[in-house]
Structures are given as C-alpha cells and as structure tokens.
Amino acid sequence: MGAGATPPPAFRRTGTCLVILVTGGTGHLGANLVRRLLADQAAVRVLVRPGSRGEALDGLPVERVEGDLRDEDALARAVSGCERVYHCAARISTRAGRERELFDCNVAGTGNLLAAARRADVRRVVVTGSLSAVGHEPGRPSDETMPFYPFGQVLPYSHTKALVEHECLKAVVAGLDVVIAVSTAIVGPHDHGPSRLGRTLLDFARGRLRAYVPGGFEFVNAADLARGHLLAMERGTTGHRYIFSTQFLTVEQLLGLCASALGRSVLPVRVPGPLMSAAAAVTDPLVRRLRPGAPQRFTPAAVRFLRSQRRADTGKARRELGYRPTSIAEAVAEAYACFRRRGLLR
Length: 346
Ligand SMILES: NC(=O)c1ccc[n+]([C@@H]2O[C@H](COP(=O)([O-])OP(=O)(O)OC[C@H]3O[C@@H](n4cnc5c(N)ncnc54)[C@H](OP(=O)(O)O)[C@@H]3O)[C@@H](O)[C@H]2O)c1
Fold this sequence. Notes:
This protein is about 40% helix and about 15% strand. It has helices spanning about 10, 30-40, 70-80, 100-120, 155-175, 195-205, 220-235, 250-260, 275-290, 300-305, 315-320, 330-340, and strands at about 20-25, 45-50, 65, 85, 125-130, 180-185, 185, 210, 215-220, 240-245, 245-250, 270. The strands form three sheets. A seven-stranded parallel beta sheet has the order 3-2-1-4-5-6-10, with helices on both faces. Helix 2 (about 30-40) crosses helix 7 (about 220-235) and helix 8 (about 250-260) packs across helix 12 (about 330-340). The protein binds NADP nicotinamide-adenine-dinucleotide phosphate (NAP).
C-alpha cells in the first residue's frame, strides 16, 4: 500500500491484525487461496509481478506490493510486518530454452523470499511444491518419503521444483519455519492464465479438442489445495512435505466430467499413446520453430506425463493434518462457471 493510500477493509478492522503475504496471488492457486483467506477475514498482502495482468485480483480487498521474486528489495518490502507467508509463485513451463528463467524465478527466487522472511521474523512459510518433484516407482503411489530421481527424462521445471524444496530445507536449518504443500494438477475457477489444463477444458467446450491420449494423472480441486495450504500452515510439521490431491482420473474420466458439466455425450477420438508420442516427437520441434511461444498441448513431455499414470498417496496429509479432499467433478463445473462469468464461454 503506497503512502496515503486507503487501506483495504481487512486492514482497517484492527491495528494489530495478522498480515498474510501470498506470492503468486494472480495465478490459479493463488487466486483461490487469496479468496479463501479473505473469506476467513484475513488481511492479505499480495506480491504482484511488475507488468502482471493481475485480473485474478480485480475487486478484491488486498494490499498489492509490486515486485519480482528476483528483486530482493521488493521482497523485503513484501514480507515486512507479515506473520505468515504462502509462497505459491513459480514459473511453469514445459518448453525448452527457458531453463535460466525457471531457475532464477523458482530456485533463486524462493531462496530470496525465504531469506527475506527470516530477516523479517515471519513465523511460518508454506511453500507450494509439485508432485513432479516427488519420486515415483512403477505400481506404487508416490508418497512424501520418495526422493526425486534427477537422472531420468525430467523437465527442467521439475528440477527447479526439487531445488525449491532444497531451498526450503536450507532455510529450516537456518532457523525459519517452513512447510511444503505439494500440489498435483490443479482444476478449478480463477484460472486466468489459463493453465495448460484450463486451455484443454476450454478447447473441449469449444469443440476444438479432436483427440486425446489415454493415460491419467492425479488432480486436485483448487479449493482442496487452498484448504491444504491452510492446514499445512496450522498443523504441519516444520520441514515436512505434504501431498494434496483430490483423486486420480484417467484422461477419459476427466473428459467425461467435462462432458457432463457441459451436458454433452461425445468425447474426442482416442489416439494410442505410442502413436501420439511419435507424432509429438515430430511436430514439437516444428511448431517451436514455426510458432515460437505458441502454447502446445501434445509436447513429448506432456504425452509422457499422461502415459506414466502417476498416482499419489495423500495418507500423510489425511492423518496428520485432517485433510479431506472433495471432488474433481465440482472443480470442473466451477472452472466452466468461472470461464462463463468471464465471457470466455457462452
Ligand atoms: N498448475 C498446476 O497444475 C500445478 C501442479 C503442481 C504444482 N504447481 C505449483 O503450484 C503453484 C501455483 O501454480 P499455479 O498453477 O497457480 O501457477 P500460475 O497460474 O502459472 O501462477 C503463477 C504465479 O506466479 C507468479 N510469478 C511467476 N514468476 C514470478 C516472479 N518471477 N516473481 C513474482 N511472481 C511470479 C505469476 O505472476 P504473473 O501472473 O504476473 O505471471 C503468477 O501469479 C506453483 O508453485 C506451481 O509450481 C502447480
């Protein structure tokens, strides 16, 4: 809040209220988490990247501090006076050639934020992790004990998310209270990006999704993930990671949920996985050359990811935090309702 600016209502309630910083508040998870915190009457401050479209926060009574995770001075301003921090911000990309940016924002940026939080005596930081940075073994759901294996076909983004967890543990050793809330693929409203999954939902609704690859993944309802972050803040053990997912769905099941949310019955054509992998390996470099920067759905990494059919075990979050996931059907319906409100769908 600049000098002389009118404080949002939550800041006027009391002179001593708890200030909570959310990074990545303009993103899919952040926009849901900020709304949840505001519903709980919290005074919310959001770190907003300079140049960010920021529409996910329009009309919300939050304090905005402009800054990038690579800007240490801005981070010092953002954490000043905060008791709690939710660090949701990250660069997400499956494209080649973005490694430096991913590393600087995600790894160095998290290090900067945690150092600033320690200097400002923040009580606890919850950092969002990714299932792609948790280990997995064929035939066994991933749990928090499984270490990330860095030598396979791993995306640079997943590498950075593993290193983010390393930054968290370094900060714990240095005396900061940090808990890691691991996310699976997020489904739900306020996806202003929109994310890769959000684009798939939109394309399906507009009749532009002509084919799909059989496979599956773990999906988390954005509301469950926001609640998981709150539980990690309230009840998590310092230095621990907790996996938050709602349910495993095959691609066919997910498209079935989309179809019923839209009142349809026809699904796109199912293309065998090996065929789609081969097609993606040929088209990916071509599309990258001819249309650099254009979003692509069927990259080799995305096809590999779906075909791996990874499952997650949320037992630790259920037992230790009382986490109770809801449903992806609801999340899909809310995502479509939000796209309609924003005029992206009729
Ligand atoms: N989406 C998923 O399915 C998924 C799965 C597993 C884990 N996660 C994790 O969940 C978290 C939230 O993901 P999301 O889906 O909400 O992502 P998102 O919609 O892409 O939002 C990312 C947020 O981070 C901000 N950000 C990016 N780089 C920044 C920088 N250098 N400085 C300051 N802010 C920066 C973005 O700001 P702008 O809006 O200005 O770009 C945006 O607010 C991330 O940590 C991600 O790794 C996501």
